[in-house]
Amino acid sequence: MTDTQRCTIVENINIAKDTWQMRLTANTAGFAPGHFVNVAVPGFYLRRPLAVCDYDDAGFTMVYRTVGGGTHALAQAQPGDVLDVLAPLGNGFSRRQNQKVLLAGGGVGLAPLYALAKRLAADGCAVDVACGFNTADEVYLFEAFTGVAARCVAATADGSFGVRGLVNAAITGENYDWFYACGPTAMLKALCQTLPGGGEVSLEERMACGFGGCMGCAIETVNGMKRVCKDGPVFQKGDLLW
Amino acid sequence: MTDTQRCTIVENINIAKDTWQMRLTANTAGFAPGHFVNVAVPGFYLRRPLAVCDYDDAGFTMVYRTVGGGTHALAQAQPGDVLDVLAPLGNGFSRRQNQKVLLAGGGVGLAPLYALAKRLAADGCAVDVACGFNTADEVYLFEAFTGVAARCVAATADGSFGVRGLVNAAITGENYDWFYACGPTAMLKALCQTLPGGGEVSLEERMACGFGGCMGCAIETVNGMKRVCKDGPVFQKGDLLW
Amino acid sequence: MVNKHDLSVEMSGLVLDNPVIPASGTFGFGEEYAAFYDLDILGSFAIKGTTRDARAGNPTPRIAECPAGMLNAVGLQNPGVDTVISRELQAIKSFFHKPVVANISGFSVEEYVDACRKVDACDNVGLIELNISCPNVHGGGMAFGTSPAMAAEVTAAVKAVVTKPLYVKLSPNVTDIAEIALACEAAGADGLSLINTLLGMRIDLRTRKPVLANRMGGLSGPAVFPVALRMVHQVAMAVKVPVIGMGGVASAEDVIEMMMAGATAVQVGSQNLVDPYACKKIIEDLPAVMARLGIGALRDIIGAAVSV
Amino acid sequence: MVNKHDLSVEMSGLVLDNPVIPASGTFGFGEEYAAFYDLDILGSFAIKGTTRDARAGNPTPRIAECPAGMLNAVGLQNPGVDTVISRELQAIKSFFHKPVVANISGFSVEEYVDACRKVDACDNVGLIELNISCPNVHGGGMAFGTSPAMAAEVTAAVKAVVTKPLYVKLSPNVTDIAEIALACEAAGADGLSLINTLLGMRIDLRTRKPVLANRMGGLSGPAVFPVALRMVHQVAMAVKVPVIGMGGVASAEDVIEMMMAGATAVQVGSQNLVDPYACKKIIEDLPAVMARLGIGALRDIIGAAVSV
Ligand SMILES: Cc1cc2nc3c(=O)[nH]c(=O)nc-3n(C[C@H](O)[C@H](O)[C@H](O)COP(=O)(O)OP(=O)(O)OC[C@H]3O[C@@H](n4cnc5c(N)ncnc54)[C@H](O)[C@@H]3O)c2cc1C
Ligand SMILES: Cc1cc2nc3c(=O)[nH]c(=O)nc-3n(C[C@H](O)[C@H](O)[C@H](O)COP(=O)(O)OP(=O)(O)OC[C@H]3O[C@@H](n4cnc5c(N)ncnc54)[C@H](O)[C@@H]3O)c2cc1C
Ligand SMILES: Cc1cc2nc3c(=O)[nH]c(=O)nc-3n(C[C@H](O)[C@H](O)[C@H](O)COP(=O)(O)O)c2cc1C
Ligand SMILES: Cc1cc2nc3c(=O)[nH]c(=O)nc-3n(C[C@H](O)[C@H](O)[C@H](O)COP(=O)(O)O)c2cc1C
Ligand code: FES
Ligand code: FES
Questions:
Q1: Residue span of the structural domain in which D117 resides
Q2: Cα of C300 to ligand 2 centre, how many Å?
Q3: pLDDT for C57-70, tens place per residue?
Q4: How far is CA D211 from CA A140, B148, D73, D173, in A?
Q5: Which residues are A67's β-sheet partners?
Q6: What H or E segment, with its residue span, contains residue B33?
Q7: Considering its fold, how many domains does chain D have in total?
Q8: C284 part of a folded domain
Q9: Which C-chain residues 143-172 have CB contacts (< 8 A) with chain D?
Q10: ipTM of the predicted structure?
Q11: According to the model, what pLDDT value does residue B242 have?
């Protein structure tokens, strides 16, 4: 059940340039890949929406980039500190069994694909992961993905790690049954336009509530106005007006 | 020199009903009895003015009552926490040597008289202390005052500790050379009107800056408008329009 | 102990168990909140601003953060009054068993009249809140809220066709809010509701463009509380009809402060968005805060600070 | 590195080393702040609102706290223009070696004219800021700020007797601030300065009375930033003269946001009261923030978000 809970920080570490990983104890009943949480950051009015990167019975992990005041404040938090978290939120990724799937993640958008990769692998899928970063010092989770994926390829814009190019340069396979993508909007649009098969993407929007109460995050889709927080953040390629 | 400094909380304990004593490490150069500090409380816009109760080379002590959001938040602070403190502020009490003086404090207004009592005693004064509280469970610092004063008498409104009555009931001596008072305005007015000799009182006003920049605390005196934070908080009985 | 404290208030014949009402636009049509707690503890709740015709609202971003508050430029996204009546107001009956506040917006007197006439006929509508103050839509709403003559015109036109109490929701983006309130009262308003959001803006330093697609949006949250309180006070001093106060209310203490300023009931908006339990906590906290302040019946403090 | 960043701006011929100016009423006559740091690092500073005749101001309490802000009802306490000139403006010369902004208030056109004529003759006055927007005094100030005709009248009358650049400081408590700005511009204002405080109120729950002796006061601090930014943007779009932006500025980022909204210079008010080093920190932080945002010269971003 979606609810507010007080979660204790277990770990909060800098894992790549401007990139932090935080592990929290939590009641994770109902968590699924693609869900996100809305974190109250002391001193800021609105909660911060952050994807669930991984979870187990004891708690969950998020990976966040320090971009503004809220995420910089989060990076100052210490193990033992308690955060008010509203979770789980969103619809989550669809399940697939015994299929050949592609997971494409750009930058911090890679994080929510990790729990997904684990579930897909457990469900018998052959999981190819394509990850895009700007530079080698921004690379994170690559080892972890390598452990669960059939194939994991990284691309960096400057070629300092993996192949040179955007995330599509890291897509080496073909004929996927389904793709999952998360990252900058431009990347998602490009993937939806170029990848032949069906797939789904996880979107970001500025949010107030995160649970469907304010219409702050609603976008136009082929099925009318949809709330990214409640009806998404995962949308089928065919739902979007791209 | 008056300046902002980051002070570490050494102790923060509940010493009487709704009454807390906090000790902080600080550079106390320039501190004198009657000075106050202006404490930034995280989550609140304005600083909170609080009197210096006692100080030494390593730091200082304040005694505060939990009345609203800021002081309740202060009571939650833990040893090791750091507070941004603007200090020392105000004009402070006048010095007297080898005189017979009365110190009258009501409730939390007793606190700033403690450093004063110590200095007066060291300067050869005979110090009588009269303290007023509502009830026995609000009594604090009484033992400490007894240690430095020639005579220390307490009054409680309900007679549950010391004599019954207001602070004037605890004034047992006569013919003081000078009096010092701090407490509720009604008490200060009454003392100024009834005590025969000269004396001075420490006032409270709602403050923004605490260092003379905003005129937020200015009151009319016989010498024109005076800022309680900068020209006070200590005013001579004869300065006031009471 | 708790029962010693009487929280009930009365507005134009409508008796509320307590004065706490989630504000329009921050509570959807209730459904999302019913998943968090039993909404029947509320005094009432105000549904999302409804217009005669369905509206898609503004493009995103619609939300920006501010110190102690937020901007929104949702732009009155709603399915239109017919769908609200046939679907939402029906659905509400399954989880909320009291009358709701129907918040109605429009872009012409005709639209307001049409939509109000329709919701007035719904059995679970207890009060109509005429929103003449939405800052997030062009060519409409706000213009009515900034001109006493236009505010009076739309009030009178709607009053002529409704039977339920009609409260006009005022804009704070005006020089003299009491003047507009008086015009509405004279035109037949049964009460006033205030404040809507303060027009504000934020710029994204990286893109050097406004954060909101709509450029400007409405400021709400604790930041606006002192302005809201002042306006509630000014309006309560000026008019004889009841006032619903809102703007930045986040605690039981804030509810009491609004009532002392002159509010008969109090709406809570943005705080629901950052804490879905906000109204529940406020209602649960009220008896203890009243006890501490020596308040027996909440209604006794309405306007306590007005007549000094 | 630091020198690569050009912070200088120009207003009506007055070149400032940087756009940061402590706001009137929050910096006294500078003396208290000179004890904290060398004021010559400032672009300029605005002296306490000065009137023709000495004023004692309002009774206390004059201050109330708010979420992310404060109310003040100081009520223009000042020693009168003659003493300000003979004592304060002279004293300033010992610790501040640049021209100051002389903030002048009044209760009649005549008073404004008399006081402005006098400060105009002072060699260390670089700019006159005509405060037609003080919400804390009765029967004066604010009325000029809420009527385009009265704003224009006082502007024209003062403009006729001064030689220094004349900036009119506007009230945010109006329906249409651009209309007032345009009236002042047409009447000869060399620039606009905004915002003054938003009228607000707080009630003491224990006494059930307003916290402020004056009942209402002016809201300032971060809470008002989005409203101030919106108004600066609206005025900058409407007029051709420079705009000094203020209201809730607390960081180097806020200064840049105000300038992108259209401000040529930026005043910092309440933040000085909670942190006496506020302006020093902002000025010191600006080069690094500019570097991060790819800004070479601050003046290049003035109005960047206006023309989209
Ligand atoms: C469903 C969802 C999942 C997300 N998952 C992650 C994640 O796993 N890791 C991660 O690093 N980031 C994620 N983001 C983006 C993250 O929410 C923002 O980076 C973060 O809110 C920025 O906060 P700030 O205070 O540092 O930035 P500021 O720019 O100071 O924030 C100001 C306001 O804008 C909002 N905001 C700013 N950028 C974004 C954005 N990109 N998306 C939504 N709101 C934004 C903030 O929440 C806040 O309300 C996610 C966003 C959404 C909507
Ligand atoms: C020079 C001076 C010395 C003081 N010394 C002490 C002391 O040693 N111990 C102690 O317990 N109290 C002292 N006070 C009073 C103390 O400042 C207030 O009790 C405290 O600020 C209340 O803060 P709050 O957030 O708990 O209350 P709230 O009522 O929530 O505060 C709201 C605002 O009002 C102000 N305020 C409320 N009450 C007072 C008051 N009595 N005086 C000034 N401002 C007030 C707060 O600072 C804040 O800005 C002193 C006041 C002054 C002016
Ligand atoms: C996201 C959002 C949407 C809103 N939509 C409406 C609306 O549809 N109709 C309306 O009258 N007011 C609307 N408002 C204004 C609120 O009802 C309320 O008047 C305002 O937010 C001030 O209260 P608060 O500070 O408690 O949020 C909306 C406010 C927010 C934050
Ligand atoms: C204590 C105080 C006193 C003020 N006095 C004056 C004044 O004398 N003249 C004036 O034009 N503005 C005065 N102001 C308004 C400020 O100059 C400024 O316009 C306003 O506070 C908004 O800026 P801020 O949010 O940075 O404080 C005063 C503000 C405060 C807080
Ligand atoms: S953020 Fe409120 S509905 Fe999505
Ligand atoms: S509090 Fe600012 S002058 Fe005293």
A1: 9-301
A2: 29
A3: 999 999 999 999 99
A4: 54, 39, 11, 21
A5: none
A6: none
A7: 1
A8: yes
A9: 146
A10: 0.96
A11: 85
